[in-house]
Amino acid sequence: MSIWSDIAQRVCGLVGREPDANLGDELRFHLDMEARQLEASGLSHDAATAEARRRFGGVDRYTEELRDERGGRMLEHLRIDARYALRLARRFPAFTAIVVLTLGISIGANTAIFSVVNAVLLRPLPFPRGDDLVVLYAQNPDKSLPRFSVSYADYLDWRKETHSFTDIAAFAPASLTFTQNDDAQRLSGLSVTTNYFDVLQVRPHLGRLFRDGDPPTETENEIVLTYGFWQRQLAGDPSVIGRPIKIGSSGRTVIGILPAAFDANSGGLDAVTVLVPASIPSVESHAQHLLSVIGRLRPGTTLASAQADLLGVATRVAAANPGIAGWTANVFSLRDELVRTLANPLYVLLAAAGLVLLIGCINVANLLFTRSAIRDREVALRQALGASRRRLVSQLMVESAELAIAGAVLGLLIAKLTLRAILAVAPTGLLPTTIDLDLRVMAFAAGLIVFTTLIVGLWPALSATRPRLTGPLHDGGRASTGGLRTLRARRTLVVAETSLALVLLICAGLVIQSLSHMLRVDPGFRPERVVTMRLSLTGARYNDTTQIQFFRDLQTRLAARAGIEAVAAANTPPISAGGITTAIRLIGVPPRAGEQLMGAATAVTPGYFRALAIPVVQGRDVDWNDPDPKLLVSQAAARQYWPGQSPIGKRIAFGTRDTLGLEVVGVVADSRSRGITTDAPAMIYMAYAGATRVARTMTLVVRGRGDVSAVLATTKAVVREIDPTLALYNVRTVDDIIQQSIGQPRLNTMLLSFFAFVAVALAIIGIYGVVSYSVAQRTQEIGVRMALGAGQRDVMSLILREGGALAMIGVVVGVGGALVATRFIQSWLFGIERMDAATILVTAAGLIVVAVAASYLPARRASRVDPLVAMRAD
Amino acid sequence: MHPNADVLQGTLDLLILKSVASDPMHGWGISQRIQQISSGVLEVNQGSLYPALHRLVKRGWLQATWGTSENNRRARFYRLTAVGKKQLVDETATWRRFSAAVEAILTTP
């Protein structure tokens, strides 16, 4: 017989009637023949039939035996067990509901987090052989800057001298103005070296892309659009290829459209142009760190050998250029870089969800223990009637599997909802916009089902079917030693889940406090009612004089409008990377040998500090009427550059050739311009007049009196009055920027707290369950105690102590676990120690109190035991 | 030996294989053949016969097909496969050795 017909027969044996009918036919034929023979020997027809049947015995018995012989037995048992389990589930609806809900929440949480892990960490880059793509950084170990922008001069040297890469390409963000039907708008652009798409190996959706060696005379008038922008703004019109669109003050020919897959990893990019080195200020300087660099490893080259190669080259370059002493280079995998900030939180959250699942499983196992105690007699009876242990265990396992599958179905639903909530709460740009429950996620969920079934079912099943001589049948249904053994197992489980819950609770406590510290931190300026927006003064119309005139004009006109309190501009937003890092020299302070001092600088217009309410603590603000551009420094910069001296009157030079420098006229209070959770950096603020060439794109800072939209409308109107071709973009309130900057910690905290909440709730249910069970077991003992004079109060405290003791042991174990676990959330913490004693004490005490409270109901039940009834029971 | 004794454990397979060696047969036929040839000494219990038939089919020694019986009834016919033939030869040899050995022991005074 072939394997297929064999399987078919087994399956038919399970579900179908057909082979049974055949089986019946065969046996019926046999009966008929027997009867016919008997009839021939002289019996009447009826008597012959009856005798034939008698000789044959019951047809059913043979069918059964035959089916065993055909191997359908296991499947048949499975079918019976499954049906029985369903009946059982219906008979105990509350039990079933609790179990399915517990497993549903646990499996749902895990599946949701895993979906995010799957979409973010496990998805391959949308480029051919994406694992060969790397990011190259300048690094300065002395200043602990492992990832720093690269100068164009470095890029050229690296490209020429390294041999580990098929090629490397440089790029920088570019802001472009796109004009369509007289409506100007800002595009988020990238300017790239011509080999950029060769390195990524991107194929165009339409047209062509820039290629290595394209002559600059052509590429400077060409542009490549992203698929999203092409769809949004140009209605996906294919005839746009080869046609010019208006970018800035002139036209650029659209040569190609990027594939849609490119958009997913490029965060709202609209268009790509070619980098024009001539437009980079002091492009020949190795200290002008402005570019990002990606590369593709040569086949067979490891990251480590590429790192060694690059390091050698960078060290030689640094040695040849004294201005960049101390600077070397670093190379990382692009994939790892893209998810660097997400990997740790995601794995921590996945682990937290895993703990919740473990606790959920423990709880369900606990419930199954309770039920197996109830079903003790059923199991014992079946054992007595000859059921094998294997058969009984497999029956109990089928029941667990059924519960796990129901839990998983509910879990997938919960996962879908959780995912939607996560995506709604997640700050924009942090996660992909859509995350699906794909095949890998389904496989993960299936794995969880198997895992939970085994964890949840096996122990209770083995313990319930332990062979015994005197079982529950014998001692009249009162579990004695067996019950005690079960109780010990259940206490262990409850201690385990309490400790796991405490680990999560301590972690959640720490991150919640961190978040509240972040929310309360003083940024050094007043963010309320401040709107920021970007604008670019480019094109033939703007030069040093007209740029300054524009901002003076804007300030005068806006100040006259109702609802505007203050307005100013800076070339970096109040919370961002914290200025542009550039090479500086302190005039009159000899630099240490071979060291190039770097400083973070931003250009500001007069009134910037007033608009943000940053106090000028010494000296004065810059002024439009200063004869030459003046500087202010932050207190941190003053301390760092001229410790113990007044910075007023000191001079700072920018770049390597300036020897005169600019004069410091004031000191302002520190502000957290690198982000709310980063200490205030040392900042140099340069009067806008000194930076008009480099600071063509500025951030307007407008403090209003009314609501944001009114402020925005007024500002827009005034800007249009001055120059109708200017577009305002990236409009955001400073409050929004701050909220956005802590969006990820907020999401992490919410999820972790949710997991901790579920864990504690489950642990409490577990404690309640096991204490109730123990009260039920000890009813007789309690009766005896009361008969001997114990009061209600004594009995209550006896039971409460039991719950408290369980929680106490769990707490001790849990604090030990937290010592290890909190190490993984170290980077999440802000303004709080990893082993914060108060947090540990409060959470531990809280857990014990709640555990004792959970024991209250069973304790009260115990205290109301009537000694007479209790002792006579059973 | 008591008449109508049940077939000895382990020999039923051999008897079945031998019965269907020449012609395909149905279950009833096999039980009749065994009974007739052994002059009624061996009676095959139906409760053992059919499980054994299915077991042999599963092992690949017999092949089962539905056909029509001599009185035009639908019946399941069993035929010996090539593997079954080899098995029959082996088991026959084993049985002969076994019974000869038993016989030798019994006839020793």
**CATH topology label of chain B:** Arc Repressor Mutant, subunit A
**Which architecture of chain B would the CATH scheme give at its second level?**
Orthogonal Bundle
Low-pLDDT ranges of chain B:
1-5
CATH superfamily of chain B: Winged helix-like DNA-binding domain superfamily/Winged helix DNA-binding domain
- The amount of beta strand of chain B, in percent, is 15-25%
Structurally, the number of domains of chain B stands at 1
Please give the count of helices of chain B: 4
Overall shape of chain A: it is: elongated
Shape of chain B: globular
Radius of gyration of chain A: 38 Å
- For this entry, what is the oligomeric state of its chains? heterodimer
Estimated share of beta-strand residues of chain A: 15-25%
Spatial separation of the terminal alpha carbons of chain A = 58 Å
Largest interface: A-B, 22 and 19 residues
Poorly predicted regions of chain A are 11-20, 475-481
Query: Whole-Å distance between the termini of chain B?
Result: 20 Å
- By secondary-structure content and strand pairing, the structural class of chain A works out as alpha+beta
Specify the helix fraction band of chain A: 40-55%
Q: Please give the domain count of chain A.
A: 4
Mean residue pLDDT of chain B: 82
Describe this entry's structure for a reader.
The complex is a heterodimer of chains A (874) and B (109). Chain A is an alpha+beta fold and 874 residues long. Helices cover 53% and strands 16% of the residues of chain A. Chain A has a 6-stranded mixed beta barrel with strand order 3-4-9-6-8-7. The longest helix of chain A has 40 residues, at 481-520. The relative contact order of chain A is 0.10. With 109 residues, chain B is an alpha+beta fold. In chain B, a hairpin with a 5-residue loop joins strand 4 and strand 5 (74-80). The longest helix of chain B is centred in the C-terminal third of the chain and has 26 residues, at 82-107. Chain B starts with a strand and ends with a helix. Chain B is built from 4 helices and 5 strands; from the N terminus they run E-H-E-H-E-H-E-E-H. The chains are: A alpha+beta (874), B alpha+beta (109). At the A-B interface, helix 2 and helix 4 of A face helix 2, helix 3 and strand 5 of B.
